[in-house]
Amino acid sequence: MTGPLPPEVSLSALGPRTRIGTGGQGTVYALTEDPRWVYKEYATRFVDDVDVTTLNRFVRLAAAAGPDAETLLGLAAWPTAIVRKEGVVRGFLMPRVPDRFRVRIQLPRGPDTVLAQVQYLLNSDDYLLDRGLHIDDRTRLELLRDTGEALTLLHRLGICVGDLSPNNLLFSLDSRPRCYFIDCDAMRLDGDSVLAQAETPEWHVPDADAEELATPATDAYKFGLLAVRLFAGDQQTRDPQAARTRLDRQLVTLAARSLDPAPHLRPAPQQWSDALERSIRRTPPTAPPQRAAAAPTGPEPTRPDAVRADPVRRVVPAPAVVGPRQAGRGWALLGAALAAVAVVAGLLSANDDTSNPPYRAGSGLPTGLVRQPSYPPLPTGIPGLTRPTGGPAGVTGYPGLPMPTRFDLERILPLTRPCILSEVKVGPGLNRTSARMKSSVAAVRGFLCGINIDSPGLEDRSRTQFTRAATLTKNGPFPVATIIGIRTATDGNPQVNVVFDPEGVGSSSGCWRSRLSLVTDDDGYGVGSLSAPVRSYCP
């Protein structure tokens, strides 16, 4: 099809099409005969929920003559025609994203041209350098100014973005950086929505249960959040002070006001205009940074007193011994399992074959155990059992056990931890049979087992990550975890949005939501890190 678009078209009139993307609500297709437009087809489960009257109003707004309509189509992939199949609304047409909102970046799998999602910019300078992106503070300020101007226009037209997040916002690096909105059918027009409002994890307003979604006030909040994270180089922070080293004082103050829990106290994006202009004038462009040359590699010089590190048995400071917990948290089972291990270790060590080498990665035991470098907390119910000490010839000794053993209990103990209350579900609309989903379910199940016994399995073992995991631990145990979304991160690994349910009865009182970033190893996927858990509705 070519020429001007009518307000409604038949699916059969679109001609050949090619799938170019899939999201939570549907699939996007490119039109072979008219590359100006793309077609979004709603997933079957959403078709009956579409507010056709509101979608028609979206289309009429784009068709109106005048500069506002032209500007709207220049800054957003706005619905321009309804598509029906046998009389039923199946989706809509929208402009194809202009090429200037695509970017060539270096990904772990190699260079690629991708949609220039703002999420790429909310990272450290080293990350940007690795991706081949040069974004200086002048560019950040200009992009923030353009986004504020776009929000001001949308609000004047009665449009609220609602789910304002770095996934739905694109950037260009033209002479004046610009923004571009996608997923516009998720916006709200004069208080009406095509489908129910939703929020991206980590981009929710402080109290989504009490505050109406998709209002100028929620847009103001998320605009402030964008400003903070853009200059902090952090995907998750909500602290305006995190951006103070790169953002001037007046803009930090505006960001702090924008993040106020009280909606009526947040400044509109237009109120940022003067401060942004002044800051842009004071911030000159900077040249792309150069990565320092890598240090020469080679064998480390041998010293007489050098100690060769065992690549498997990494020694880390042991955490304090934790006392017994309530049986409801699985500690009664864990204590029994540990006692059983002590007995089994004693029996086996009595017949110890000294020719049998100590455990190493790649032996019959799962290599995933290598991802447990610290000693697990031990209950006090086993008299005399203390932390391991070094022994002769690489043998690990456990004071308080009746005999030495070649069994490395640091490796054996994780096998005996009871995996209590660990049902992992896949939410509606997700492909539960795909290999990636099956591997993700296994990774989430392992993480769920860990937090239910106070021993989270995380690749990132920083204090921040353990604090986040502790938020889940202290609010658990969780009988059920539900994967409600899955996407591919910039490193090519999955990120899964998970709701942890402490009751398993659909209550909204105690569920917690987090995004788990997965990493790959020889066994499949493991959990690398998690976002700060937040209260959520149970699925």
Automatic annotation (TrEMBL):
PROSITE patterns, alphabetized: PROTEIN_KINASE_DOM
Protein kinase domain location: 14-303
Taxonomic superkingdom: Bacteria
Listed Gene3D superfamilies: Transferase(Phosphotransferase) domain 1 (1.10.510.10)
Disordered: annotated span: 281-306
Protein name per the record: Protein kinase domain-containing protein
Organism whose genome encodes this protein: Micromonospora humidisoli
